[in-house]
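Homework-ish question, so no full write-ups if that breaks the rules, but can someone show me the predicted structure for this set?
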Amino acid sequence: MAVGLPGALPQNPKFLSPRSRVPFPLRGSQILWVFRGATTAVILCALYCSETNGRGFFRAHLGAREPRVGLLPVRDLLHPENSINKMSKTAPAPQVDELFPLSTLRHSVAHLMASAVGNLYPGVKYGFGPSIEHGFYYDFDFPEGTAPIEKKDLKRIEKEMRRLAKKTPEMTVEKLSRDEACARLAGADQDLKVEAVELIPEGEEITFWSHGDWYDLCEGPHMDRLDHDFAFKLQTIAGAYWRGDENNRMLQRIYGTAFWTKEELDAHMAWLEEVKKRDHRRIGTEMDLFSNHAEAGSGFVFWHPNLANVRLEIERFWWDEHTKRGYDPVYTPHVSKEELFAVSGHLENYEDMMYAPMTIDEQPYRAKPMNCPGHILIYQNRGRSYRELPLRWAELGTVYRYERSGVLHGMLRVRGFTQDDAHVFCTPDQLEKEIASVLELIDFMLKTFGFEYTAYLATRPADKTIGDDAVWEQATEALAAAAKRLDMPLEMDEGGGAFYGPKIDFKVRDAIGREWQNSTVQCDFNLPNRFDLTYTGEDGQPHRPILVHRAVLGSLERFVGGLIEHFAGRFPVWLAPTQVALIPIQEEHESYCNELSDLLRAEGFRVTNKDASSHMNKRIKEAQKAQVPYMLIAGEREAADRTVALRRRGTREQDVVSFEDFAKMLRSKRASRALEI
RNA sequence: GCUGCUGUAGCUCAGUGGUAGAGCACUUCAUUGGUAAUGAAGAGGUCGCGGGUUCAAAUCCCGCCAGCAGCUCCA
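A: Not a homework solution, just the prediction itself:
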């Protein structure tokens, strides 16, 4: 029925040869492909026919959830701007940004870039060139002997792109047989593309998109022309393995981005600036937070006093919340005999990530890459009864992992880090309740830091897993039920579980929209078996406990590094390295300031050092650079009536308030862990 | 680990074969100042480390170390 419609075909482009179709916008981002030359009236007619005859078809292809979508008024199916009346007379040409999604623009600009590179570097071979989250890239294999392209070459390529977009704007598509495609690409010496053809499953259509004499194996879709209004920019050059496999040859990848308007492009560039400004490594240097040292080795973080204060505050919070929920602390050694990791299976599966053994008394020892074996040894130390389960043991456990040098990154990817680890040993019956308690804790802690999150339920992977179906099912069920109990929505990550059990992972969204993964709850059927963990049940028989691994923050390093970027160094009062800066206007007011700072310090507040003999302006400058939430400036008037001139971070205004009122406010901000100052 | 790039004062950076510079920060002195750049002077560097080429190396070459952007991997 669809093919029989006079003028319109829904979305699936395969029903129309690409050459003879043009896109027509529907509501949202839907596109209706119609015959080239179809008038609005014909399209409306087609939609009308579909309403009466082809509801099911439109339902399917418009992706509408509502079963009665086919009966919606036609105008609702069209772009909101295009009412029927307007359209039936002088069909206004849809704007190009309504015709094509941003990803199509970017994909087309990637083609444009590839053709420009082809012109400037004859003999270049093409890899893949898709659109990605914030732009696009294209992979190139430059001929032997070509000087590697540099950042300054990007300008030249951009210029050539502009020229080509004007000279040969039309984008066309043709369908080739598999043999034709291979022959053409092989003839052009495009061996990567020949390989790409071979990747296309039998039965799928093979299409080439061209503009000018440049063509590319590509399934599309693309814009109809390259001379629409849009703005683009080439950004960086990097190496990338062919097909993402490090055993393959390394190609040169050029990244770029494109938007419909210059304003949007500028806004995106401004966002990238903001990302740069928030870089925790930069802020870390500016605010004297942490350092790395070549002489200590890559991937080890040195926490300076400022950041150590932030961490200590987080640790206090963490322990308090764990104690409230029935966790007990444990401490385990950083180094132990290799044998322990043989039993746990880490040596077998994880050795590449572990530091090399050190020999002590002729025995091999290892730095621990995980905390679980240590906790398990404590469990095993004596017999366990069902009466004492669940056992919840928490440790801020420092682990060491050999990460490849190229992946190290500030505090976010390091070789020695402290996990906020805990293990719950429980019976199968207790599982759901225990998980619910963990989920509640994660929810509470993440929200305290001002993070929104999404939780993903990761189920059994397709292969290489251990454990019975029934156990997997029960545990997965427990995870889902626990989330339901808390009304926590779960996204599905089918097959994303660990080999040893299902889990729930959390992705948090930071202040500028980036996602981070930290928190996790994982069921483990593996380690209890390997260590032959048991407890004595009510029946007097040994039973196998379930082990739950969980981390709320992930690692202190990564979490705090992310926190620096999330807050852009402007920590809330409870976390701020220095919470209050006391600034006398003249030296003779120093004693009044010292008196106040003693009072605050006695309550555990972090206050600037007293007697920092320097001038008011300088102290203000320093306090601003240190992102101190509150400055208290005091001169003669303030000292006389026991007030302070309160200046809040980020503003130049000041209020004169009584010291007592300020202290009260400060206490309440700290106690409530308020995000706003 | 791989590809490309980088390493000069605490920080940001200039200096491409002839024996090291700026701004900010730091120190001292002067300035006694009502909300972030007062003035003057001073101090600070075996130019990442090691080797090579050269009459001469921060500069050219090689190796190592460390960092940056990606790729792959990950808390």
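Now go work out the reasoning yourself. Hint: The longest strand of chain A covers residues 231-241.
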